[in-house]
Amino acid sequence: MSELQNLEASSLTEIGDCDDLEKLERLRTVVFGKNGRFTKIVKKLCDLSEEQKSKFGSEINSVKKVIENKFSEKFVKLEAYELNKKLEAEFVDITMPALPELSGKIHPLTKVEEEVMDIFSSYGFTFADGPDIESEYFNFTALNVPDHHPARTMHDTFYVHKLADAEGRKLLRTHTSPVEIHTMLANKPPIRFFSIGRVYRSDYDVTHTPMFSQIEGIMIDENVGFADLKWVISDFLKKFFQLKDLQIRFRPSFFPFTEPSAEVDINYEIKGGKIFFGAGDKWMEVAGCGVLHPNVLKSGKVDSEKYRGIAFGFGLERLASLKYGIPDLRGYFESDIRWRETFGFSHFVR
Amino acid sequence: MRFSFNWLKRYLSTNLKIGQIADKLTAIGLEVDTLENPDEIFRGFKLVRIKTAQKHPNADRLKICSVEDAAGNTKDIVCGAENAREGIMTVLATPGAIIPATKEVLKESKIRGIVSEGMICSYSELAIPSKKEGIVEINPQIDLSTSVGDALGYDGGIIDVSITPNRGDCFSVKGIARDLAAAGAGSFITASEKIVCNSSFKFPLNIVTEENNLSSEYAPMIAFRVIRGVKNGPSPDWLKSALQLAGLNSISTLVDLSNFWMFDNGRPTHLYDMKKVEGNFHIRFAKVQEAFVDIKGNEHWLFQDMPLMADDKSPLCILGIMGSSKVTCDENTTDILIESGFFNQVLVGKAGNLLNIQSDSRIRFERGIDRSSCIPGLEGITQLILDNCGGEASEIFVVGSEPKNETRITLRKRKLNDIAGYNVDWDEAKLTLKRLSLKEVGAPLDERATFSIPSWRSDLNIEADLVEEILRIKGYDSVQEKSIKVTVPENDKILEKRRQVIAVKRLLAARGLSEIVTYSFTKWNIAEAFREEKDLIKLINPISVDLSVMRPSLLPTLLLNAANSLNYGEKNIGIYEVGNVFFDSCEQSLHISGVRIGSKYEKNWIDHRKDADIFDIKGDVFAVLGYYGISEKDVSISSNVPPYYHPYISGTIILSSAEKIGYFGELHPKIKKLFGITERVICFEIFNDLLSFPIQKSDFFNGKIFPKISRDFSFLFAKKTLIGDIINKIRELDTKISKVVVFDHFKLSDTEKTIGISVVLDAVDRTLTEKEAQDVSDKIIKYVESVGGELRKK
Predict the structure, then answer these.
(1) Is there a single domain that holds both residue B552 and residue B566?
(2) pLDDT of residue B193
(3) Cβ contacts (< 8 Å) between B465 and chain A: which residues?
């Protein structure tokens, strides 16, 4: 075997045996360095004839290429190995728990309020607001509920310790309907608005809390009537419950502020202990509504011969309970921690 | 209003079943609350044939009957009835059935050592009025598989209807039947309206009317009659059973008949036992603070304008509302005075409210009864008494006269269509009103019709009332929906504001605070602690002392909620509420308020800070304010806080124009005590009404970015130096300062602290030179020195 062949064989073996980058670099010097093995062989070229030089030179070059290739191959391999070793040393147990931030929830009434807003504003209803502390005039008289009328006592009104004025005693509004009067007085027809707010009645048991929330809406125009009212309520309920086949029943009823008046039921059935709307033949009451009584239009300084109004009211908690299966009305206002976790919504949910 | 189907049939001839009647009632606005359907009443009952009847081995009077049902199953039943014998068909109640008479659930039982697998029923156990004794015997021709209800020809069942306040006329079986008939559910039987009783003597009493205005206002008409020689005692079965099914107690025949007649015909009458009356009868107003003992034995103090029947000594009855126990009929009653009056519905309601007395009579008068019913109603009750208690009736004596104000309403075809929202068939509409006993008066016109209103419908007063009657009887279902034209609301600022509040709620939830909703009222002593200089608004009639004052701040109810969570063992609490607070002369304003207790994180291995502190809550506050375009540089913070905050760890946020927009800080230890909280509580209040829409910023932007220069300083300050103000001032020192950040705070001693401040400098149009940066730095150092700070040498 020639010296060159020996060099090639031994170098390849040594490169193969090399197990870290530093050794590899040292070996490179041993082979290709100034006094390296290879350099020594190259130096021997000087002693050869031109003919031999070119023959031997090309042999040297091919051996050099083989060894260099081997070197770079090994270098890549060792480099990858060593990087991996370094990364491994940085091991972190990623199964450890993340920073447990307290999760905040929005109240279901807020969620439902937003849903209701979206639907009514899509019809062109604007939002109106009114005070929680009202006068007898706006809460009752202007709404065609005369003194000592059974409908007035039915409401179990809370009165507040403030001097009565020309508008009568001060009370906590028993419904959101006073907003109708304020809005009529502040605007010229056509008017369409809705309102959402707290109302108060002196009643406390499993199905009643002394405070709850109502949604109120009216539409006053020259050409609205009971047929339009039915559409608004039906369309709203179908959109709210996201059920296109929801059955809606209008039943005659009585409210002093509307004539004709109706209560509205939706159909449901109970299967496996769960309630399903839009199916079955049982009825659940969800709203009261009607065509505004001319006396109410008069209180709002609206010409009752020229205009008519349709009006409706829903219980916000009731809608929330029905849609999201929230059982006890009292839970809404006790809002204890378990209740919040169960019935609250993530702030992301829209 | 509760009544049996059989009772209804006194006034309604119908082929409909009870379920169909119930549906019809609800459809015409007489909402059925509960329906006791015979199919449900007889659940668990079936027809059986007695195959053998043998003597009970351990009892002389009992038999053991082997009975067989339609499916051929046999059972042994112990029975004591004499007519229990081989071959007859009867009714068996199986275990689990509810016995109608007792409402008890039947259980299998051992009778004298023998197991009885059910009960063979008598008519009285089935609550069916009958004169037959013993067990029920069914016509043997009937197939055994027939339902019990059908086999008995039972058409009973109970309907309970909730009557709206306008329908006084439907507080009677008669009125309900009349409405049903108008709606096509059968035909109305009018017989009871034509009764006239024979009178055998002149009205014997002198009834003294002391006030003239009494008759014209409160009691326009009262009809009286005396019946002598009645015999009072327990009621006959039919009467007991009718009242029992209607949910009333049986007292004595006379009292029961008066109640029966009120439920049947809608006509309240009052009966006075004449033996118990001292001297003459008087119709007069009550004296101030006059004592009155009602029929239930409750004492009342009367008001001056309450109309009474009285004797020489004391009040006997508050007209239209309730009688006194003094003149109640009992088993010794022989002579009675019957009073049948028409009283003003508003004044009855007012008197009833003042005295807080509820009665079946009041309910009817204040909702309006038939103003023409005084005499026919008196004749009807007289007939019932004569039939059931005997006696002789006097002539009728009338005080006042029937109000003659007949109502007339004109209905225009156009108005009918307008209110309905579609074109209603005009002829059909008029027909509907006629079916409701409205009479068309005057010459018929094409586009309008005038109707006279029957005396019992005091609720019909305006055109719209007639429209409701037409639609109600036609059925609301027949009205086709008509879609409205959707419009685009212009500039709905209030909705926009409301949506912003919801965005703030989501923002707070994202920061780990949960929304709660609490009552607007709270305890007085707690509200008192949060009222600052404001007046509290108290309720006159609170539901309890815990809910008696309108809250002047959201914190009381938030803290009650937090205290409750702590009691449940919760350690880390973050809650907020958005709601109104109330103060002074009924003012209200919308607040956003939050409370944090414990850590922002659950116990963990990463962040070891213990509790959330003032700077966490300040972060919450400025996150909310940031939503409204307000940052720390836009406000100043004053240490002048309400007394419920920690005086040295809290602040008032003041917006440029010296307007308070909120508070934040630690809760005062004294206040924590009120709620039983020992943990550190940090909280905030933001006055949402004072915040306006986010300001649109239009900063100069030329699309180029130049490198920023950052300079850090360490300054020495006296401990109580307010750094926030200094930061705000530094920001304004030079336009090249784009950001000032505090990166370090160190308490050097009890009197000194060091503060690390990092300042970022840049320009919108060029890279700053080192010289420019140095000039700004010098300016900052000079300013800090001017306010008592000192640059620390490294």
Answers:
(1) yes
(2) 65
(3) 259
Question: Minimal Cα–Cα distance from B377 to chain A, Å?
Answer: 24
- The verdict on a CB contact (< 8 Å) between A102 and B31 is no
Q: Supply the CATH number for residue B413's domain.
A: 3.30.56.10
With CB atoms and an 8 Å threshold, state whether B514 touches A344: yes
Cα–Cα distance measured from residue B769 to residue B756, given in angstroms and rounded to the nearest whole number: 24
Tokens of B533: 């200089």
Chain B nearest CA to A223, separation (Å):
7
Determine the average pLDDT of the residues in B740-747. Answer: 91
Q: Is residue B781 part of a domain?
A: yes
Q: Quick one: average pLDDT of B623-649?
A: 91
pLDDT tens track for B309-331: 999 999 999 999 999 999 999 99
Domain containing B740 — which CATH number?
A: 3.30.70.380
Min Cα separation A200/chain B (Å):
9
- Residues B57, B110 within the same domain: yes
| Alpha helix positions (H), B15-147 | 18-27, 38-41
Within 8 A of B606 by CB-CB distance, chain A residues are: 99
CA dihedral A310, A316, A322, A328 (to 10 degrees): -140
Looking at the fold, whether B677 and B566 belong to one and the same domain comes out as: yes
| Rounded CA separation B228/B200 (Å) | 10
Residues B56 and B32 in one domain: no
**Domain of residue B725, residue span:** 709-791
For residues B267-286, average pLDDT: 93
For B118, counting Cβ atoms within 10 Å of its Cβ (0-12 exposed, 13-18 middle, 19+ buried), the class is buried
Mean pLDDT within A230-250: 95
Average pLDDT for residues B702-725, to the nearest whole number? 88
Phi, psi of B642 (to 5 degrees): -60, 155
Give all domains of chain A, ordered by start, each with its CATH number.
Answer: 3-89 (no CATH), 107-346 (3.30.930.10)
Q: Beta-carbon neighbour count of residue A4 at 10 Å?
A: 17
A123-127, A136-140, B562-566, B731-735: the lowest-pLDDT one: B731-735
Q: Which residues of B touch A219 (CB under 8 A)?
A: 484
* pLDDT > 70? residue B502: yes
* pLDDT higher than threshold 60 for residue A91: yes
SS3 B788: coil
Residue B46: both structure tokens together: 């079936």
- B762 and B666, same structural domain? no
Are B371 and B467 part of one and the same domain?
no
- Please provide the distance, in angstroms rounded to a whole number, between the alpha carbons at the two ends of chain A: 83
Q: Could you say which of B464, B476, B544 has the minimum Cβ distance to residue A262? A: B476
Q: Can you tell me the distance from the alpha carbon of B517 to that of B513, in angstroms, rounded to the nearest whole number? A: 13
CB contact under 8 A, B541 and A159: yes
Radius of gyration of chain A (CA): 43
Chain A nearest-CA distance from B318, in A, is 17
The pLDDT value recorded for residue B142 is 84
The enclosing domain of B525 has a CATH number of: 3.30.930.10
pLDDT at B463 over 90: yes
| Cβ neighbours of A309 in B, within 8 Å | none
By the CB < 8 Å criterion, does A133 face chain B? yes
Residues B207, B38: contact at Cβ < 8 Å?
Answer: no
- Mark yes or no for CB contact B421/A226 under 8 Å: yes
| Within a domain: B515 | yes
What is the spatial distance between Cα B564 and Cα B545, in angstroms, rounded to a whole number? Answer: 18
Say yes or no for a CB contact (<8 Å) between A192 and B367.
no
Cβ-defined contact of B166 to A336 (cutoff 8 Å): no
How many structural domains is chain B composed of? 6
What is the pTM (predicted TM-score) of this model? Answer: 0.84
Which single residue is written with the structure tokens 């062109």? A124
- Residues in B closer than 8 angstroms to A253, CB to CB, are 29, 31, 164
For residue B483, the 8-state DSSP code is P
